[in-house]
Request: fold
Amino acid sequence: MSGVPIEIMGRTANPIVLGLDPGPTESCIVAYDGQRILYATLLPNQEMLAHLLVEKYNADHLAIEMIESYGMAVGESVFTTCVWIGRFQQQFGADRTALVGRKKVKLHLCHNCKAKDSNIRQALIDRFGEPSSKKHPGFTYGISGHAWQALALAVYYWDTSPVCV
Reply:
């Protein structure tokens, strides 16, 4: 069989992983099937809940970035984000949702837990090619801002989950 995914009623036979970078008011989600990015979008959190209600019938797995403690005081926005993480997990289904700490993603993609967002972005560019544009579309077309982190979550889950490998 070639590396081209098989389409079944408009859907690839590969599992679809959603990577979700949560925030206190809006969150970014990327859909990835191991061979291509299906979409990336930034939505207000209330709209993300509705989106996940639909996507739980289309996608197979959801990887959400989980808040990790670094021993420093945090503000209200961090606690608000934690509440949204739980709501997203409940909406999609806890049995198909993985809460992934940022350190795991950093170690997987950059082999260094002190990596920054720019290092993660560069690791994804090294893996998938230069960022693309409307004029020159490519693998990462439509990925910008928080979508890089959402893509990193989806790629991490795809690479490490026994159901995707």
Observations:
- The chain has one domain: 16-160.
- Confidence is low (pLDDT under 50) at residues 1-9.
- The longest helix spans residues 76-92.
- The chain has five helices and seven strands.
